Amino acid sequence: MDPAISIKGLTKQFGPRTVVDNVTFSANIGEVLGFLGPNGAGKSTTMKMIVGFLSPSSGTAEVCGFDVLKNPIAVKGSVGYLPEGAPAYPDMTPLSFLRFISGIRGFNGSEREDRVHNAVRITRIEEVAEQPIETLSKGYKRRVGLAQALLHDPKVLILDEPTDGLDPNQKQVVRDLIIEMASTKCIVISTHILEEVDAVCSRAMIIASGKVVADGSPSELKSQSGSGDLEEVFRKVTLNA
Amino acid sequence: MRNIKLIFLREFTAYFATPLAYVFIVIFLMLSGLLTFFMGGFLERDQADLVPFFEFHPWLYLFLVPALSMRLWAEERKLGTIELFLTLPISMTEAVAGKFLAAWGFSITALFLTFPFWLTVNYLGNPDNGVVLASYIGSALMVGAYLAIGSMISALTKNQVIAFVITTATCFVLTLAGSPIILDFFSAWASADIVQAVGNFGFLPHFQSIQRGVIDFRDVIFFGSIIVIALTANAIIIDWRKAS
Prior knowledge:
The complex is a heterodimer of chains A (241) and B (244). Chain A has 241 residues and is an alpha/beta fold. Helix content of chain A is 37%, strand content 25%.
């Protein structure tokens, strides 16, 4: 079977700047892969290329066997994506927003509704489901974004900073969700919060200046420092890059 | 087609989710009335037609249409929803067409709500309703061309005010391209062929010829190609500078 995500030599240049530099990796179902790295390291740009929002300057990205350049619509159909900041249309309610997404994801009639209600239930946004999204708290907005991303039960979930800016309780809700789904999906999350790696990830990649500078399970990464402290490893590998 | 319909419906309802739709329709109807009766001399002319009503449409559209089109893409950029929207399993054509058709459908709705003028003129006399229908079709085509240009310009920026101003300026030039103001500017240095070509791009002569009651194929092609070209450019612009 193809790996859920297969990236080869992925590179993105904005003018003279190389933001993502020859990134190669693959990930399978059952893995929760954490992209770690300082702000501006290229985590988001890498994700944007995997989901087909930005085209790579060179290299390839395949999701569920579909090439993102040759077959972008098939890739977009098999991925659930939460962009950074969980953007959503502020004048819509979560219900009408999710109905729109459900329709676009190809569901009709009662299944379209079932998908919406299922996503609302999983992300626990029932009580705000009929309020305009612009009136929701950050935590709820994030969960609406998650609901949108997992509505079609995708094999691959790409979540850009899913817990950034949330309070500890809200963070826990999102992490529990990720852990719940972990066994049946390939999940990639980006974060600059190191505790997140311990909390949810089965594998972590540290990215600095567009390059992968470390890749392994959280315990493998920790063993790279004498003290077994992830923060120390992080500083060591990112400051040199 | 299904995706275009879904995008159309989302966008179309979005106009009504804010006061924008109501403000737009009320202002459009009020200004149409004021211009027709006071500046156009609808009653004083003593003729059973809607010429004074349609005559002002290009000028009304000039500043009302950019207010509709400015949000189409600039708002998606500003809110970051463009990233969500363009990572849904839809093609660029569906995305651009769905949004454009929603704005066009909304404008046609506003245009349709001017039917009391048509009732009035039919009550007061016996107008040539074929001419009236042709003028409505011409007006709808023209508003489509303005909107397509506005959509394209909206794709260039995340600032809606900039989109508004540039669209108004562009549409102003295109509206007047066949008139002496613009032609004199070109005739000072360009050859006669170029001046004529520029003149052919004017919206006014095409709209006026439809307004005479003849839906000439060439006028339809003219507005139709403006729409297609502007929307194609729109798609290319979005593809080219998605990130910024």
